[in-house]
Amino acid sequence: MKKALLLNTVNPRIGGLLIRGKKGTAKSTAVRSLAALLPEVSVLQGCPYSCPPEARQGLCQWCESGNNDNPPVSHQVRIVDLPVGASEDRLVGSLDIEQAIKSGTKSFEPGLIAAAHRGILYIDEVNLLNDHLVDVLLDASAMGRNYVEREGISVSHAAEFILVGTMNPEEGEGDLRPQLLDRFGLAVEVDGIMPSEERREVVRRRMAYESDPFSFMDQWQEEEGRERERLLQSRQLLGQVTVSEDILGLITDICAEYQVDGLRGDIVMYKTASTIAAYDGRTEVDVEDVREAALMALLHRQRRQPFQQPHLVTEQLDNMLEEYQNQSRNREAEDNSSSNRDHNEDESDPSDLGDDEQESDPDSGSGPQDQWFETGDPYNIQSILLPPPDRRERPSSGRRATTVSGSSAGRYVRARIPQGTVSDLALDATLRAAAPYQERRRESTGVDAESRLVIEPWDVREKVRETKTGSLILFVVDASGSMGAQRRMVAVKGAVLSLLLDAYQRRDRVALISFRGTGADLLLPSTNSVDLAQLYLQEMPTGGRTPLSKGLYLALETLETERLKDRNVLPLVVVLSDGRANVSMDGGNTQAVEEARGFASIFDDKGMTSVVIDTELDFIKLQMAKPLAEAMAARYLKLEDLRGDSLADAVRNELPSATGGADTSPDTSDGAANEMRRLYDSLG
């Protein structure tokens, strides 16, 4: 992580850095510490664009051509924090309202991108940032300029900054889209696991800093000075670094071998390898530079399947580099002694291959699992995404639905001309629309310039708010002992994994409930991280009796909690069981089946969309899950029918309408169902 940060300071054209890691791995600390390490920059005093004295942009009064009254000053490299909730106006800049009101002229008020020029733009939890803002940022970072065309303003200014984003994959959306990941030059994975001695050293330094910060900083002043001087020398040497045609061929071969889409990976590897050589004080790139560059440039660009963690297969890379070195040695041998060429080839290659064959003899073996079953192979299914109600808008995106809220709830993203009565006034946009005309309106109305603003009805703007209302898919999985017969749990886990793959593509939220023995457990609360769901699915044990009632009750309780958090949540309950309930709520086994069906009828009463997948694979089938589906008003499917179009047809028939509920409702007026509803109300 530290090496990647330093390389970006030597050569900002690498394109920034994405740091992935769990909490407590010093991601933010490292980025903020970088500013004190870098050499100071010379800027025109007061210039919001951080213009250097020798390259004035002429966009403000401080750096206009001919204005020599403003002396340059030196200050530390600026770190600009981009809040997750920042608006586009704050990021790229917008109309200067104060200037427009005073003089009626349209002038540009620079945003955070302008403030980060010649500095560092830092985004903590970049995976939580709006995708549109991330795209704008990466465009400005790649081009080195920020183009603003809005509100009658057309401005472009230099935007050369080091873009650094950090993220914790366990939080928020889990990950960025691949096309956005590719726009970051380098990416590193930070692991917080350290040996005991290193942990002790971290604690010692932290305590030393807290007890006497100034003495601690003085202690490292000399070493920081040496590193600062090394960075300056590396910048000067960078232009002299050369990359041979053989090394260029190696870089492109590696990217082709890893099936990297596009050419950005090749270009970033070239720049990174050259920067590594300059940082080490060399003017020629070697094989080790390429290897180190590949580890940072390809981590987030290699193709990977859903649920596959970002991890670069270094064995494949090492084999390619070793083959390149062998070929280089052979060419050198041919050049030095053409007469002994055949002898050299016979002596070198067979021995190397023999050593490799002797060393690569992995011992792989694993014992059978008695209570944990592996996950079956996933297969293609049709989408089970629930569309939002008709009253909300939805873009044509494959991601979790980002909808335009019809109320004052949600995040304010932009403003628009009102469509009917204004219920959510966008004051900032209204002022920007009215500001350029204040001087003229005051003259025509005779209003005192110091007393009030003149706002006409056509100036009014209303807020557009976005909320994320993707489906919540709640898996209720039977993990009792009957699921171990004929290894049914393998097929069940494979079915859930297939559904998770679909949720991954749609960015839906998922939750996982397992019931076995005498109780039910919420293994995974509602989350965007389907990687965690897949992990808990793998570790889910099997055995014991079948407390189906407790599993359904916990599902109802979980959905009620989610609706308290978000009233627009669109739940889909997927129950995977054979329906053979034998444990009731009080722990007995009498009336367990009737009790479970009574709880199932509550899903129908509440208009919850559900699907029951019968996991029974025995030759003689009791089909006890079918009455359960009828009580829930759920679509009934057999496990073998889950593939292909069966699930798509099932879910399409069970999608909630704008008024909620399914098309058909079974008769739930029997006494057992009413008793279960009363029991549920008393418990909840």
From TrEMBL:
List the PROSITE patterns.
Answer: VWFA (PS50234)
Basic and acidic residues bias located where? 329-344
Q: Where is this region: Disordered?
A: 326-411
Report the pathway entry.
Answer: Porphyrin-containing compound metabolism; chlorophyll biosynthesis
Polar residues compositional bias, start-end: 399-408
**Acidic residues composition bias: residue spans:** 345-362
Q: Which domain of life is it from?
A: Eukaryota
Transmembrane spans: none
Supply the CDD domains for this chain: vWA_Magnesium_chelatase (cd01451)
Give residue ranges for domain VWFA: 472-655
Which SUPFAM superfamilies does the annotation name? P-loop containing nucleoside triphosphate hydrolases, vWA-like
Q: State a single Gene Ontology molecular function.
A: ATP binding
The EC designation for this entry is: 6.6.1.1
Alphabetical list of Pfam families matching this protein: AAA_lid_2, Mg_chelatase, VWA_2
Q: Which InterPro entries match?
A: AAA+_ATPase, BchD/ChlD_VWA, ChlI/MoxR_AAA_lid, Mg-chelatase_DI-like, Mg_chelatse_chII-like_cat_dom, P-loop_NTPase, VWF_A, vWFA_dom_sf
Record keywords, A-Z: ATP-binding, Nucleotide-binding
Q: Which PANTHER family match?
A: CHELATASE-RELATED, MG-PROTOPORPHYRIN IX CHELATASE
Family the UniProt entry places it in: Belongs to the Mg-chelatase subunits D/I family.
**Could you identify this protein by its name?**
Magnesium-chelatase subunit ChlD, chloroplastic
Upper lineage ranks? Eukaryota, Metazoa, Porifera, Demospongiae, Heteroscleromorpha
